[in-house]
TrEMBL record:
Protein name: ROK family protein
Organism: Sphingobacterium athyrii
Lineage, highest ranks first: Bacteria, Pseudomonadati, Bacteroidota, Sphingobacteriia, Sphingobacteriales
InterPro entries, alphabetized: Carb_Metab_Reg_Kinase/Isom (IPR051804), RmlC-like_jellyroll (IPR014710), RmlC_Cupin_sf (IPR011051)
Keywords, sorted A to Z: Metal-binding, Zinc
SUPFAM superfamilies registered for this protein in UniProt: RmlC-like cupins
Family annotation (Gene3D superfamilies): Jelly Rolls
Molecular function as annotated in GO: metal ion binding
UniProt entry tagged with the keyword Zinc: yes
Chloroplast among keywords: no
Amino acid sequence: MYSNTQTTSFQYDILPTFPVQGKLSNSYDELVDHLIQNHIHCIDGFVGVNWETPIKHIQQEFVKRGLTVRFVSMETALLPEAAIEEKVAPYLGGNDPLFGKKTPLELIAYFDTVKLAALQGMLKQATDSEYLIFYGPGAALLEVSSQVMYIDLPKNILIQRMRAGLAGNLACAKQSDQKELYKRYYFVDWELLNRHKRTILARVEILADQQSAENLPWILGNDLKATLHVMSKNYFRVRPTFEPGVWGGQWMKEHLTGIDQQVKNYAWSFEMIVPENGILLENNGLVLEISFDQLMFQESSNVLGAAQPRFDVEFPIRFNFLDTFDGGNLSIQCHPSPSYAKAEFGENFTQDESYYIVDRKGDAQVYLGFQEDIDAENFRVVLEQSFRTGEPIAIDRYVQKFESQKHQLYLIPHGTVHSSGTNNLVLEISATPYNYTFKMYDWVRPDLDGKPRPLNIDRAFANLNFNRKGDVVKDTLLSQPEVYTLDAQASKVHLPTHEDHFYDVYRYEFADEVKIETKGQCHIMMLVEGEAVELTTANGMKKIFHYAETFAVPAAAKSYSLRNLGTAQAKVIQSFVKDHKC
């Protein structure tokens, strides 16, 4: 019988791909032909793109053709950096090391209108003797109706470049520390660049992926649109990303094939999350990565179905792993209320979570809710004293802990004090915002960089629900399974969530096969026990998913089947937006 706790690696694809409807190219020769034939003079792109490399190769192709080409950087039309800093300052959270507020700024706010008009004049007066190419973020602003090229960069690659000192913030010459750089990416750069990308997506004739040092895979706009449309009626799986952390564990290193073994530990695997994951497209051995949000920009109605009017292009549910096997405890923490998340951070919904225990060992614990005799004022005094003195706290005097149970769902609506203890592999099923963890106690330990981890005691106490204590926790935050028999070999288990959760959770258990209807909702799933399942959609597409892989079936797929390919029973977790919340 298949064991999820075996130490040998099992099949897990860290580079999942979707077939392109059309073709991919890696040829600069073909690229330049297409630029010329379609009179494309504007190459827009994302922050962190290394423009020197594609510009060099494009110029070489023009020289081969005996043509003169002139490149003009959009940086020449930017406002002075001091003026840009003044515009973005209100969204950077001041001295707060972690939190800002999502900006409503548009990309055009970074530009000097006089200089921008001058570039537009240059474009209009261009002659056949010199081919003008304007490049950089905002290039599409020069021609509001013409076709453009867009060079994208996956956000995880951007973060890698940032950590290596190879990428900074948009229109910002100064180099801050990494926390400040990331904070500005999250609250400012990504916000205005994603809005810009959404507005120009219909005009993108060529989209390229610049994560490689030399290669530049690209796709024509119509092929990209066709691919996303097919995806939106069948299935998708994003490229997972993995991050170490001070409490990180060894489960993923020991079990996931292809993962980097040189990293000390892995704390997180982002299995499906719009803000950072990408989607890999494949054709004839070539692979191109697009941002997850591009699928949402084009096909949000097909993907989300009945939930789309509420969430627009935001993908509402995220799946990620928390690995503490032979690691440490997570911080004692909570998450903000919806009103607090909106007012403080500009988020449209908050971080309502749940912990699903995929694997565990020994005496693994989950910290959840307060002890019955909790005294809020005393608890705060103890936390603040520990922060000042570095003295540890006997935290279970204040916070309840439960022995974790495999396949149990622990409910963590906003305001609930919680943590995962050591030796759990947690599938965190949550509303998508993921950056708002208010740490109150972190076991008096430094971060991976050796510096103290920031605590957020004030923000936590503005959100903590002290009524979630004692027996209330057992009665309302430990999901009670409801089993429904489907046939002789299959059952459906409802794992009810809290009334504050806008998503629901089910588990399908089957020996052979189950047939499922989407009923107007996007289904996010993971095989949490078994070896592999084969998905077949109503449109006839097939795809095999292995243990611990997350995948989604959009609402527009309407129906699909899952066939068990293993020798033991398959168990598949499924989450979707509750109907009455749409």
